[in-house]
Amino acid sequence: MNPTIPHDKLTGALRRQSVKKNVAAIHVSGKLTLLQRKLSNVLLLNAYDTLVTRHKHQIDARTLCMMVGYNSNDMDTLKQSLRSLAETTAEWDMLDANGRQEWGVSALLSYAKLSGGVCEYAYSPALAEKLHDPKVFALINLNIQRRFTSGHALALYENCYRFVRTGSTGWWPIDLFRRLMGVDGSAYYESFKHLNAKIIKPAVAEVNKTSNILITPELHKMGRQVSEVRFLIKENPQLAMLDIDDGEGLRQGPVYANLMELGVSDRLARQWITEHGEDYVSEKIVYLKGRGPVDSPIGYLQAALRNDYKAAAPAEPTSKAKQAAVKRREKSVAADSAEAERAAVIEEERKARAQIMARVQEIVDSRSPTQRDADRRLFLAWLDDELLKSEFSRLGWKAALCAREMVAFWTDLIPDAFDGAD
What we know:
422 residues, Arc Repressor Mutant, subunit A, three-stranded antiparallel sheet, 18 helices, 52% helix, 14% strand, WH-like_DNA-bd_sf, plasmid
């Protein structure tokens, strides 16, 4: 997507990466598409802190589009999705504060409007209370939900994740499971064979591949018919980095703040702190600042981290000959440092370009032959430099000279094309 929104550009609740989502909301939003489900979660995250104290909430429409996965200018799709949320009902059946059974129904959004580049929306008071209830919620990690490509898989993840501590969802009647997946009322999915092949198996595979939990379905039969299903749940150790914190602790420290001031990317800053430790990174930042202005502070700092550059000890009084020798040695060290810095920058650029070209090839491979032909013509028209046009005509999508233009082209066409890339 266009670019994942930089963390420091978000405000308020949006700076968090997870949203408390009530069991009731999870159970009834199954008929939403994948993007509508993500939209529902982002709106809830944005509103959560003031969910029961404010009657309406606001978020910048372009920011909302980019967080969810729409093209930032695609207001028509956003309008249609908001309309769907307003037309979809949420139903809950649970114990109230006094232990009495309570049933209720409400539209997911009581209203939504777009005006002046701002999306304004509201929840009904009754639903807002349920969504904000801390006793019955699951933590839905927005970093994880971005990875899902199937609405059924995301629905299954949301319904399973809240049981991760108990290890099992418990037995769900098949009719209830169809409702959770949003396929109740479909004659095709009345057949368990079809439900299993088209919904359960693909959704389980994507949850296990994409998220921080692993689930295993178990079936219970009444006679020859499958009457109930449950899912055994355990944490996925291979995707622990997607857990709720998502590096938030590292971002709170002074070393991370110093790296941000130097222009280091969030991803690289967290990598350096994790790899070397805060004390070592802090020592090299002090060393860098002691060198005075340098052409490429990030490359110089990387060289200092890799080669363990240290500040020179205070020099003792020496003869002129010794002083000259010291100066020559300092010049030599400075030259070596500059060379290391240049080499580090070149290597970083090479890696970044290779990453871009690999991602571009993945995108191209995923397109149909008709789309590929259109993409090629569109990109040629996009280029305004004759040298780049010639290079692309000769090498196609392997033309590394056009890497920067390819990023701009594909990001405009597919907003989340380079999500996760530095």
